Every structure is written in structure tokens, then in C-alpha cells.
Amino acid sequence: MSADDVPDPRDGPLAAIRWFLRTDTEAVVFVRELGSSALAVAVVGLLLFAVSGLWPPLVAVESGSMHPNLKQGDLVFVMEEHRFPGDGAVAGTGVVTYQRGQDTGYAKFHNPGDVVVYAPYGDGERTPVIHRARFWVNESENWYDEADSEYLLGATSCEELENCPAPHAGFITKGDANGYYDQVADISSPVKPDWVRGTAEFRIPWLGWVRLVITGDVMLSSPMVETPTTTNPLVSGGAAPLTG
Prior knowledge:
With 244 residues, the chain is α+β, with helices and mostly antiparallel strands.
């Protein structure tokens, strides 16, 4: 029987499989190559999941709020934060803050501390935010004196700040390119550990654009925004999951 002959059902399933793998019939070749590509993608996905402990393990950066360390359109690999915590991780969280990173020499994306992907206000329906964990606050803590005054939008006391005293324990976060903390600009309250989806580990330039353009989650000509607004995607530091 030649590779292009349709197998006789009486020859059994093995003969049909051999024909499927060897035939040069155009339609079958297309299906075979499509299946091979899908299998390769599945294997890569499983390997990434095994390493990261998350699904999906990749996010596409929607905004310029982490520029130049993470750029709009980057594809970022995210890992479950407890897997390989860095030196100085806040107890029980697996996340190293900017403050602790300065003390221990731990850095990610050219600055001290971890970059975290989190659900703003713990709302899983919102676009996740990808920003750097700056420092930790305890519930009811007056964190005004601990903060860098440059990122407080001109506030001169705790009473003038959103989320001060802290309504609950969590991380104070900030986009590297933003001139204010997320908790000052009403992007999120202090980020509770269980709101953290993972830590950003490395970036692949440009590949995230495919997802962003297809879904319409980005405006290609949008400039960087200097004043805070909760509706502008360049401020919130969105990190769209690659799938789902």
C-alpha cells in the first residue's frame, strides 16, 4: 500500500495510523502539522506551568508605567512568589520590597525589590497591575514618614493621603515610571499578600503586542500620562494575562 492510498479498514487501526503519519495527501499533511504545532505549544505551556506554578504564566504589559524596565508590549514570565523567594522577603509572602532589596542587594529589572502582579483592591475582575513592591505596612500604620515624599502628590501628613493610616496590612506599590504610589492615586489599597498573583521574572520584548492588539487593550499612539487617573491604562500598569 502506498502512502497516498486510503487504508482498508480491515487492515486495523495500526495501518490507519501508519498511513496518517506517512501520507502526502494535502489535507492530511495540514492536519498533521497543525496537530504537531498544537502539541509543541502544549508541551511548552506545561513546562512553563511546572516552573512558574501559575496558569497562565505569561502576561502582556499594557502600559508604560514601568518604563524603561518593563515596556508596553513586553511579554513577562510570572512565577508564584513563594517558589524561589529572594533575600529579605517579607515574612510569609515571598516578596522582597524595594526597601529590603536596598539592604540585601536583591534586585529585579534594574531596581531593588520584586515586581509583583496583583489584583487591585483584590478584585479578580479588574485588569491585574504589574508594579514594584516598595515597602510593607501593618494595619492602622501611619506610613507617611516611611514613604518617599516625592511620591505623595504633595500631601503633608497622613490625614491628606488615601489609605493612611493603612486600612489593612499589605504592600505599598508603585510603577517605576509613575510619580506617585498606587495607594495615593487610588489604584489600589495596600496590596494584601493573597492579592499577589506572582512576581515578574523576565521579559521578552514585543511579543505581548500580539495579544494587546488583538484584544484592543492598547492604544498604539497613547502618550505617557503624568497626572493620576484611574481610567487611563497607562497609569494603572495593566498586565493582561496571555490567555483567558
